[in-house]
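Ticket #4471: structure output looks truncated?

Reporter: J.K.
Steps to reproduce: submitted the chain below (227 residues) through the standard prediction queue, then opened the result file.
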Amino acid sequence: MTEETRATRYTVISHREPVESLLEIKRSEFIGHVKRVESEAEARQYIESLRKVYHNARHVCSAFVIGADREIQRSSDDGEPAGTAGIPMLQALLSRRAHHSEGTEATDLSDICAVVVRYFGGIKLGAGGLVRAYTDAVVQVLDEAPLVTRQRLRLGEIIISHADAGRFENDLRSHGFTVIGTDYLSAHAVVRIGVADEDQNKEKANEQVAALSAGSATVTWTTTEWV
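Returned output as attached by the reporter:
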């Protein structure tokens, strides 16, 4: 069973490949990277891999946010003046506005690691300039990263006769259900569904299943799954 969280959905990068972007300010290069990660260990492994790639860079600063509730938040200035790199990068991740399918917006980006590599160009930027530069480097690379919503589904099982299973599956899909699959057992079929894990959705699903089956079928709710 998956871990229960307060959040029932949040935003992630849609793929596992890292995204990179270059920002130049007063001859300094700020190379921004973001990657989807599932754990603190994976985030730190990614940061260390970039340290090896950019072994001659003066600074490899980082920030990451992990979990549906964004309970893990870390940042590093990596030698820049305290508070001028890691924290601004972290705030750029936390404040990123994402669009959901129904037209709403939320600041719920997570499972992401940002790394900004700096090559010093000889001109000091000052504390304020560094904060803007590291923030802008993360914002710029996020602009190039495709984002999607992760939704926690409540899974349910519906017992139905073999003869009615195919039609019932089609009826469920036409009414907006996520049909995960159907298991054909010796005595009956079990149709497995998923709905957004909120109480009102389960209640609505119970009513729709009863209506579609003329009262002969009910939903047995089981575990949750992130999709």
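Triage note (M.O.): checked the attachment and the full token line is present. The chain has five helices and twelve strands.
Status: closed, working as intended.
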